[in-house]
Structures are given as structure tokens and as C-alpha cells.
Design brief:
Layout lengths: L3 H9 L7 E6 L5 E6 L5 E6 L7 H13 L7 E5 L4 E5 L6 H5 L4 H18 L13 H20 L5 H15 L7 E3 L8 E3 L9 E3 L6 E3 L2 H8 L8 H14 L5 H30 L8 H11 L6 H10 L8
Antiparallel strand pairs: 1-2, 2-3, 3-5, 4-5, 6-9, 7-8
Helix pairs in contact: 4-7, 4-8, 5-6, 5-9, 6-11, 7-9, 9-10
Length: 326
């Protein structure tokens, strides 16, 4: 990797001439590198090039979450203009790696308890100035599917008439869900969680990806965790974690919560169809295609909820699951 663009920043903070390893990059322009040697003194370099990536939002949200008692990386140094930051290295014990070894219940329980804690402690009135998960944001996300996935999967763009009916159904479904309840991290999934075994309780759940957080509905992050686009989650674990969450909030109307869970889950997965196809078309990243059948399974699971019957009928007519054969 060419480290020339980092050189001045790293030198200014004493991390030049250190071993550097590329760690991760996903559907955004953000990239992570490890500097130094893990367990012998290392930090992570975040490359979040502006204006597409908003490093200031990451720093602001990290401060908020840390103030609530959650585990987020310390921000050691940052250059907002260039989009560079040196942050605490949480190590490699990501939840996705640990889940591959088994003990699903343990790690999903910690992740669910972390959400419970966040939703119990976050003061909506105190942070009412944060961005809302608005109807326009929901619609832009659905447009990603219409622009990238639909034409590729069905051989032609969706007709204007059918697009109007599709978005009309979503307008009806989402209108009751625009009143915020809590902080929504948006990408709350196992790839973005790290197990910190030296920290107790929910602090053992290290959060990595939260710069796009908004004010929204409490069900969103739970469905993000349990309907993961990249990993299968057993029906038993899904049921256990939903019950665990609801038991922590006895004042909630369970039927309404589960209805919102299904609506938000379907919307999120439909958006992801578009994101994954865009990564394939733009960047030739075939690995994303392998996840699309799983995303469809989540969509079909959510469409079984009675409140989504109109959307289910529309999709059976105009957007049948072409991935089922896989």
C-alpha cells in the first residue's frame, strides 16, 4: 500500500515508520489500517476521505456513546480536513469471528443487552437536535434498490406506474414510524462489534461503526443485528433475543413493536439488495452477490407479518424472488 498520503499525519503523531497492515473496508469509502504490532503497541488508522465520509460525525458520536458508558475506541488524533484519525485498537475478536466458533447465545445476548442499555440510558430530549431518520432518508434508501438491483435482476427498470405504487405502499407503512424513540446506530451487526474480554458486562461489546447514527425507532438496531445480511441467525436465537429485549421494556406494546420490527427489517433488507448490487456493478466485488439470497430470506420472513400483506402482494406480482433458485 502507498502510505505517502498518510506520511505527514503519522509523522506528526509519532507513528511513522511503523508496520502498517490493511484491515478492512466495506461498502463505504472508509478504510482501516493497523499501525504497529498487535498486543505490542498498536493503533488503528482510519482513512475517511471527505466529503463522502464525515469523520467529525464519528468523533461526535464516539463522545456521546462513551459518555453513556459504552465501549467505543478512544480518538487519539484526528485531521478532519484530510479525514485521518488514529483510534484505539480493539483487536481482532470480532463477534463474527467468535460466532464462527459457536456459542451464539452468549454473544447475541451481550449485543442485545448493549442495545437494551443504550435504549434505557439515552435521553431523547437532551439529544433532540440530532438528525432524524426521516421519510426522505427511508425513500432514498429504497431508491438504491430500484436504481441498482431491480434493473440488473429483472432486465429492465421498474415502470413509473409500479414505482409509484411501490413507494406509496412504503409511505403508508413508514408514516407511523417517523416519531423518534431513541438513538439508532444503523449498522449494528456482528461485523461491527468486538468482544473485549477484559471489560465487564455490556462494556465487553466494543462498537466500531456508528458515525451514521440518527434518531429513530428502537426496533431498527435489533432487526439489524438479528437479520444480518452476511450471517445466518437461527430462528431460536432471533426469538430469544426479541423476547429478551421486550422483557426489558414491559411498558412496550409487544404487537406494535413486532410490527415495526418487520416493517423496518423489510425496508433495511430491500435497501441492502441495492447496496450489494452496486458494489458488484461498480467495483466488481462478487463476494456481495453471495449474500443476496440470504437477504431475500430475511425479506420473505418479514413479509409474513400481516401488516406487510399489501407489500407482499406487490412484490409477488412485480418483484418475485429471482434468487430462490440459488
Amino acid at each position: 500500500m502507498n502510505t505517502q498520503k498518510f506520511e505527514q499525519f503519522l509523522k506528526a503523531h509519532g507513528w511513522d515508520n511503523k508496520p502498517i497492515y490493511f484491515l478492512a473496508g466495506d461498502c463505504s469509502n472508509r478504510k482501516y489500517y493497523r499501525l504497529g504490532v498487535k498486543d505490542k503497541g498498536s493503533v488503528l488508522l482510519m482513512d475517511a476521505p471527505p466529503p463522502e465520509e464525515r469523520l467529525g460525525d464519528f468523533i461526535e458520536m464516539a463522545s456521546l456513546l462513551k459518555g453513556l458508558g459504552l465501549s467505543v475506541p478512544d480518538i487519539l488524533h484526528a485531521d478532519l480536513e484530510k479525514g485521518f484519525a488514529l483510534i484505539e485498537d480493539f483487536g481482532d475478536r470480532t463477534y463474527s469471528r467468535l460466532l464462527a466458533q459457536g456459542d451464539d447465545e452468549k454473544y447475541y445476548t451481550i449485543a442485545t443487552d448493549t442495545l437494551i442499555y443504550l435504549h434505557q440510558t439515552f435521553d431523547l430530549k437532551k439529544h433532540s437536535g440530532l438528525t432524524l431518520f426521516s421519510f426522505d432518508i427511508f425513500m432514498r434508501e429504497l431508491d438504491v434498490m430500484l436504481e441498482w438491483y431491480y434493473p440488473k435482476a429483472y432486465g429492465a427498470p421498474l415502470s413509473a406506474k409500479n414505482k409509484e405504487s411501490f413507494l406509496g405502499i412504503w409511505k403508508t407503512l413508514l408514516k407511523p414510524l417517523l416519531m423518534p424513540e431513541t438513538l439508532v446506530l444503523r449498522d449494528y451487526m456482528v461485523d461491527n462489534l468486538v468482544y473485549l474480554e477484559d471489560r465487564p458486562g455490556i462494556r465487553s461489546c466494543g462498537l466500531l461503526d456508528f458515525q451514521d447514527a440518527l434518531l429513530g425507532r428502537r426496533a431498527y438496531d435489533l432487526v439489524s443485528l438479528l437479520e444480518d445480511a452476511r450471517y445466518d441467525v437461527s430462528h431460536e436465537i432471533q426469538m430469544q433475543m426479541k423476547a429478551r429485549y421486550l422483557d426489558a421494556f414491559p411498558q412496550l406494546d409487544r404487537a406494535s413493536f413486532l410490527e415495526e420490527y418487520a416493517i423496518l427489517g423489510a425496508q433495511r433488507s430491500i435497501k441492502i439488495l441495492g447496496i450489494f448490487m452496486r458494489m458488484y456493478v461498480r467495483h466488481k466485488q462478487e463476494k456481495y452477490l453471495a449474500h443476496i439470497p440470504r437477504v431475500w430470506r430475511w425479506i420473505e420472513q418479514d413479509l409474513t407479518h400481516p401488516s406487510l400483506s399489501q407489500l407482499k402482494d406487490w412484490m409477488e406480482r412485480h418483484m418475485p424472488n429471482v434468487e430462490r433458485r440459488q
